[in-house]
Every structure is written in C-alpha cells, then in structure tokens.
Amino acid sequence: MDKARSRELFAAAKKVLPGGVDSPVRAYGAVGGDPLFIVRGRGDEIEDADGNRYIDYVMSWGPLILGHAHPAVTEAVRAAASEGLTFGAPTGRETQLAETICEACGAQMARLVNSGTEACMSAVRLARGYTGRDKIVKFEGCYHGHADGLLVRAGSGCLTGGVPDSAGVPAAYAKETLVAVYNDVESVRALFAANAGQIACVIVEPVAANMGVVPPEDGFLRSLREICDENGALLLFDEVITGFRIAYGGAAERYGVTPDLWAFGKIVGGGMPLAAYAGKREIMRCVAPAGKVYQAGTLSGNPVATAAGLCTLQILRSRRGEIYPALEEKGARLERAYREAGVAVGRVGSLLSPFFARERPARFAEVCRCDGEAFARYFAGMQAQGIYVAPSPFEGMFVSCAHTQEHIERTCAAVAAACAHGAERRYV
Ligand code: HOZ
Asked: Ligand 1 center to residue 112 CA distance, Å?
C-alpha cells in the first residue's frame, strides 16, 4: 500500500500545524507511523491522498451515522449554503432543530453551539450558575472536550498522549473538579460526603467512550440520579457521542434515567460543526439573555450546520424503527468477530471498542492495564487490510447505516487476521 503522498502532506503539515494535526489523537502517537490524509468519503468508505480505499470505522469520530456524503444531507447543505453561509441573526431552522432535539431526549429547551467542548463547558457553567455552587464531579477517563476544568484526569487524546491533566490549567481552577471512578457509586458518595453543599453537578458520559467503550454497570446511572437528587446537584449527561447513537433518544431512552442537563455534539450536526446543550426549562431559563449565565457565539445555530443536523435527525426519526435494530445487528456481528479472535469488547449498539485484555474492563484502572503494543499491531494489521479504525485504544468504533453487510463481513475476516497478528505479546 503506497502512502507516499500522505507522508509528504504530513511532513508539510508538521511545519505549520503543531504535531501536524488539528486534534492530537489524529497524529498516530499511540500506534506509530504517519496519519493518512483523506481526500474523500462515500458511504462507509474513505479514500486517502494516495488513492487507497478503506472501510471506515472512525466516521469522523461519530457524527456520520448515515455515512459519508449522504445524498439528502449534502443536498440540504448545498441548498442552505446557496442561501447564505451565516447571518448572525435568528433563523427558523434553529427552532426546528432545538424542538427536534428536545422531543427526542425529553428536554424542554436547548441552546445551539459549535462543538461538544462548548456544549459541555456551557452546561457546566449553567449548572454552577443555577445551583450557586462551584465544584463539579467528573469521572477519570471520561472526556468532555478541552475546557480547562474538564481536562482533569481526561480520556480520549489526553489519555492517548499520556497527559490526562493538561498543562496550562490553573491549579486553583482544577481543584474545583472532583474526580470519581466510573462504575463505582461509592466513590461518588464519598465526594458528596466530603464536599457537602458544594457540588453543582455530576457530569458523565452515560456510556464511557473515551477510554475505549465502557458501558455503565446495572444501576450505575440510576444511582447517580439518586445521589444528585439527595444532594441538590444536577445530573449532566454528556451525550456528545451517545446522543442519537445508542438509541434515537440517547441514554435516557436506553437506560431509563433522565438527567437535568444534556450536552450533544457530533450526530446533532450531521457532520457540520454544531452541538447543543439542553435541559429542563427552569434551568435553561438561566441562560442569557433569558437569565444571568452568559454564553454566546457568532456562528451558533449556523444555517448550513442546522440544515445538516436537522436533515440527519429527521432521517433518524422517520426510520428509527428500522435504523437502530440494523445498527445493533451490525455492532453485534463485529463484537462476535472480536470475541472469536480472543479479544474483549465493550459495546453498546453501534458503538464498540476492542480491549486487548483477558476481560472487558469496567473501571479506568483496568483500561490502563490493557496491552497497548498489541493494539498497535492490530491497528497496523487492520489498516494493511483496508480497514480504518481509530489510531488509539481509547476511542470507539462507529458503525453507520452505510456499512454494507459485505463490508461488515470483510471487516470480521480482517479482525481475525489482525488480532492473530496483535496477539503475539498479548495479556502482559
Ligand atoms: N474528540 C475526538 C475523540 N473522542 C477526537 C476528534 C478528532 O481528533 O477529530
């Protein structure tokens, strides 16, 4: 497989972009080698700058649940763009998108922003403004974007790069972030006991998906709900990854636990830079200009992005009865392939990740004991067979509606070969 052009492009990029990329986890730091430079995507495939084609399971890290360049979504974008790229004034589609998001998850009001980072950061500020408290609880290994206070013990690229606590975050600010253990209710109770009356919210990925995919244990999310209620704190679901993916109604639909606030990203923008935070009316009314919690944005509710997001959600809503069962089936087929290859798997619906460990981890400390070198060999084996997976053991695989049965089967065969290759020094 020739990768000369990608190599050249990366060499040029490194001169002007830090690390040659615009987001750290893209840089192949955990697996070695140079990143592929992508020129186009169609359905479930991407093509790199050297003309190599790959079945894609990164899918832009989650947004592309309908696949690359979905005809209806690209047409919606084209039509919206031809009317003007941005106005910085209200448009009707923002209301429609907010209504669609709220109807799906059970929220009453939403505010549109540009990225998952902004959505989480703003929702945390809102929780603080609403409760009048400063401290928040997050879980080690969970990632909520790169706002200062949320980088404490963070997953995703921080974990991949070995810097779960970023430089540049003032210690005085970081100490307002209390860190609990995902899937360990007692660790949350202990923080509430030690910080009575001071905690504004618990922010959690309902399915942890930035330390590999770690599903919540039975009762975990319900216990968080109870602890928050007992202590007058808000429960904030970061559904940037899980929203509209693990079910049309996200975690509330899948697990029957309703938070006070939600952060959405990825799928809600249909592949464009759009995200949202949402919640109960009483809380959302605190956001400016209705209330005193300030948050703003020149491109918020951008007309082209809302067109992509709305079109995507409308397709998901109208065909949810067929889409989600089909995604579940494809995810289950891939899970089986990994298990048959002797690799543990975390999976919820079409979101999954292999773990090079004897058993699927349920806690962050167990995730950290997985075999990173075996992952790197597996990654190289998959790429050599034309399968594009994330260059990090801590990111999920995203299955889309566009993944064909034939490509899923081709992937299963590739998994068997790549895992045999990755297995040599497994389970250290
Ligand atoms: N935050 C993404 C991973 N969970 C990475 C985004 C990117 O590198 O494009």
From this structure: 20
Matching residue, tokens 């009356």: 197
What digits encode the pLDDT tens for the residues 291-328? 999 999 999 999 999 999 999 999 999 999 999 999 99
CB 353 within 8 A of CB 346: yes
Same domain, 214 and 343: no
Question: Residue 351 belongs to what domain range?
Answer: 4-69+320-425
Q: Indicate if 77 and 62 belong to the same structural domain.
A: no
Q: Calculate helix-pair angle for 405-422, 372-384, nearest 10 degrees.
A: 140
Q: Which of helix, strand or coil describes residue 49?
A: coil
The CATH number covering residue 400 comes to 3.90.1150.10
Residue 243 contacts residue 262 (beta carbons within 8 Å): yes
> What is this structure's pTM?
0.96
266 in catalytic set: yes
Among the candidates 283, 318, 353, a domain finishes at 318
Distance 157 CA to ligand 1 centre (A): 7
* 248 carries an active-site annotation: no
